Amino acid sequence: MKRLYLFLPLTVLLIGGVLPGCSSNKKVGGGGTAISEAVSNQDYTAELKLSPGLVINKMVYGGVNLGGQLIGDYEVVQKITGLDNGGFSFHWSMSYPEPTSGNRTVDASDMQNSHRYSIFLINHEKGIKKGFTALLISQDVFKSLKAGDKTPYTDDSPKQKPTTVGKIGEETLPLWVNDREVTVKTLKAQADNGDIYWFLDNPQWPLLIKKTSLAANSFITSLTYPELLAKQGIEELKAKKELATYSVYFDFRSPVLQNESAALLDALGKSLKESPDAKLAIEVHSDNIGDPSANMDLSQKRAESVKNYLTGQGISADRLVAHGLGDSQPIADNSTNTGRAKNRRVVLKIN
User: Fold this and answer.
1) Residue 256 pLDDT
2) Which is deepest, 54, 159, 214, 333, by most CB within 10 Å?
């Protein structure tokens, strides 16, 4: 069986969004975990919680495999599938450079005590990688960083492994939370091999949000509670007649919709059935990486994929218009990774 090893510095965040007429302190959650809806630009550090169903979309730039060979740039979708006796499980998938996926469990004892972090995923894996954390650092490592102490720390890189890590500062970062841009406080840390990390300054859930290194850079592009997002998204679309979303997921460099898009699109189909006179325009936007004509073509095909999904839900095709706009209408600076992520969006308009 072919095994593909992927460099994947994993990160997860959980987010919500406030809509017209919704209270900003409303709690929504699954598995006994309550999540507050987010207000744009609010400090959301203490609100992030681990919960089943959480979907994380992340970008990796300059990723390499376990042998140190360059993979390139790619997107990864991760979904929390369960909370297990103090630990947790997640499913991950990516479509480039080839379709790969797997399931990983992080043991409760490792969440408390491990000083080893797993950045590599193995195609078709299933189970625990004993002795390692993933997605977050252990309580022991977090406490040392918070106190300003250096602490033993390593990962499963094939070479140039770190051996220690220490705090070098604190930094506030923007994050997309159910299509709302919020902020979070982080502990900025540096390892003895030069790698730099931004860990969420939340003792209950010290997530690795961002990483830079000689091997690769990574950061979260969007984070979603599907059921909460679907409810909020449809309410906003009804109120404002327009919704810009980062929670319609496609395979990398492909028009193929991913399963994680279903919650929002199913709710959209239901809403359109309840308003039979409404028509919907679907706009898909890209960043400016690559050939402009290719971006325009791909965004049009992606818009058609959304249209086809909705027709499959019983919505007449003559009520739907698909527009692929490529990189012609940026809303952020395409010279930065964060700006490009903000420009890659789907806009829904009711008329």
Assistant:
1) 95
2) 54
